[in-house]
Structure formats: C-alpha cells, structure tokens
Amino acid sequence: MTALNVDKEGYLLDLGDWSVEIAEELALREGLPLTPEHWEILHALRDFYAEFQLSPANRPLIKYIAQTLGPEKGNSLHLNLLFKGSPAKLAAKLAGLPKPTNCL
User: Looking at the record's lineage, which domain of life comes first (predicted)?
Assistant: First the structure.
C-alpha cells in the first residue's frame, strides 16, 4: 500500500494530491474495485466540487448526477449500489474531496 496523506477517516488532506492512482489506492482500502461506472460518478463529483467548492451530501449529489448523467444513474438505488450505501461520503473520499459537511 502507498503512503497517503489522509485524515483519521481516510480523506485526503491535500486535494492536490489526488490522481487516478490515489483513487485506486483509496478504493482498495475500502475493498471497492473501481469500474467505469464508478469513474463516471467520481469525475462528475470532481466537476461539482470545481464549480461549487463543496462536496455534496446525498440529495444534491443525486440531483447533480441525474442532471449531468441522466436519471438512470442519478438515483439513490444506483449510487447506493456503487458506493456501499453511503454514496456522498465514499464517493467524495475516492474523488479526493473533503467529507460532505452534513454527513455523519
């Protein structure tokens, strides 16, 4: 395993450290192999962060994905299946973003 500069919950301390390889390492630590479907969400999430400077909680994440990738991907069932029941938190972590502020 690669040494990563992360906080106690596994989120990157420096967003500039993120790369495809870092995302793969973070996913490996979560026991989650990344598929093209995961990458689609992760890239959309990084676009969201670039535009709004925050990591979305579940509802805004679902709405944004529905708007950008379509309703078949922007729904809670699809995202929960991809990201083990906590899509906003886990996707933000893998995308190298801060933990969404209103997620426990």
Answer: Bacteria
